[in-house]
Design goal:
alpha+beta, tt1808, chain A, 9 strands, HSDR_N, three-stranded antiparallel beta sheet
């Protein structure tokens, strides 16, 4: 897999039926190791092990609906009141982060209404603080603080 501009992770990769799989510590199962999954797992580990987000408040590959169409969010962090706090859209390292990527994350966030949105391809990561109803956004220097002071 591609070296990423994210901290290295301690993960379990196994070969099952000829395919490399990575153990997802949130979903608690092996997932086929695609380039996008490689980025997603690095971001999850960063959130938990470096930034202090609670594992119990993170959902990976959650379903959502936008204009009647079923979509899947890559990572959503919830606050203590179970409200979306941070939406993260992950892409494979070879996918350029552009207006299309930001637009996709913003569309997903119209359903979730999280105050923070991030996009990452593992090489670059951008975080935004969202305005009311996603009407505006301000780019941040990094991820927001965890919604709780509890470190894991």
């Amino acid at each position: 897999m591609t070296n990423l501009n994210l901290p290295p992770i301690n993960c379990k990769i196994t070969e099952i039926e000829g395919k490399n799989q990575i153990f997802d510590i949130i979903r608690k199962k092996n997932i086929v190791l695609t380039p996008e999954e490689w980025v997603r797992q690095h971001v999850v580990h960063l959130l938990i092990h470096q930034l202090g987000f609670s594992k119990s408040l993170i959902k990976v590959e959650g379903g959502l609906s936008y204009h009647g169409m079923a979509k899947r969010s890559d990572i959503v962090v919830f606050d203590q009141q179970a409200k979306p706090y941070l939406l993260i859209e992950c892409k494979a390292p070879e996918v350029k982060l552009d207006r299309k990527t930001i637009s996709q994350a913003s569309i997903y966030n119209k359903t979730l209404d999280a105050p923070f949105v991030a996009i990452s391809n593992g090489l670059k990561t951008y975080c935004f603080e969202m305005g009311v109803n996603g009407a505006s956004s301000v780019q941040m220097k990094g991820f927001p603080e965890p919604p709780t002071a509890v470190k894991q």
